[in-house]
Amino acid sequence: MADIHSYEGTAQSRGGEAGFGDYVALLKPRVMSLVVFTAFVGLYVAPVPVNPFIGFCCILFIALGGGASGALNMWYDADIDRVMTRTAKRPIPAGRLTEGDALGLGLFLSGLAVLMLGLAANWFAAAFLAFTIFFYAVVYTMWLKRSTPQNIVIGGAAGAFPPMIGWACATGGISVESLLMFSLTFFWTPPHFWALALFMKEDYHKAGVPMLTVTHGRPATRKHIFAYTLVLAPFAVALGLTSIGGPLYLAVALVFNALFILGGWRILRRTEEQAQKDSYAVEKSFFRLSLYYLAAHFAALAMQVTIGGWQ
């Protein structure tokens, strides 16, 4: 395996001049958008009002922290990104940036985001952000991702922390509501990524990443997807019974969890022959549904708090 820590720092080694968009790509903007949205909802639905400008700054610094995590991930994963079709066009594998560029940007943004969030909100939220960056960059990227098929399960905590950080920015602490927002994202993550892995297995196999589809096969992955849809549903519905829930959120949760469980059941009953015959259409449809699933739940929370809930 290539030494991913070396700095290939000559212009001649690059595939072309880096542009501003390449540095933005290091921050994984699609992942950052999820961080921003869920953190915003966590901040917005918290019972302690926050000055709009302070709130904007909090979300900005949380986003920078999420981007820093992405840059550190791309630094460490440059070797496997080069062999995966899905990631081969990223700035480092394409030769437009080096591992050193990503490491430097990631470390700088990490320090900046944590310091500024502490000054803008409180040091508990800042410490929480620092732990999240550490968890994603070290616990998930450097350890879990390459060592266990449970990488997505445990590592998914990093992506589930942002709404708790948003809540902490407003309240300075943790509550049942923020823990349930965490649980919603945490238990959603495995079926979301495993559905993708079902039709992207060869990428993970080539890169030597022990995704569940590689280590246990697609039939076992299908069972795990369905099981997690069943585990996820109670947490999603329970959130609707808290102080930030209400009839609108509860209706959205019931509908989307019924669809999610049905989608998981359809995946469970599929054979590989059926999946290959229609180019994994059901699996791709479930993956798209998973994107709408999380967005719908958090949007419904924000709308519910806006119009008023059970209280």
TrEMBL record:
Record flagged with keyword NAD: no
MF terms (GO), sorted A to Z: protoheme IX farnesyltransferase activity
UniProt-annotated location(s): Cell membrane
GO CC list: plasma membrane
Main location per the UniProt record: membrane
Biological pathway: Porphyrin-containing compound metabolism; heme O biosynthesis; heme O from protoheme: step 1/1
Note in the entry: Carbon 2 of the heme B porphyrin ring is defined according to the Fischer nomenclature.
Family recorded in the similarity comment: Belongs to the UbiA prenyltransferase family. Protoheme IX farnesyltransferase subfamily.
The name this protein goes by in its record: Protoheme IX farnesyltransferase
Natural source organism: Paracoccus alkenifer
Species lineage: Bacteria, Pseudomonadati, Pseudomonadota, Alphaproteobacteria, Rhodobacterales
Gene: ctaB
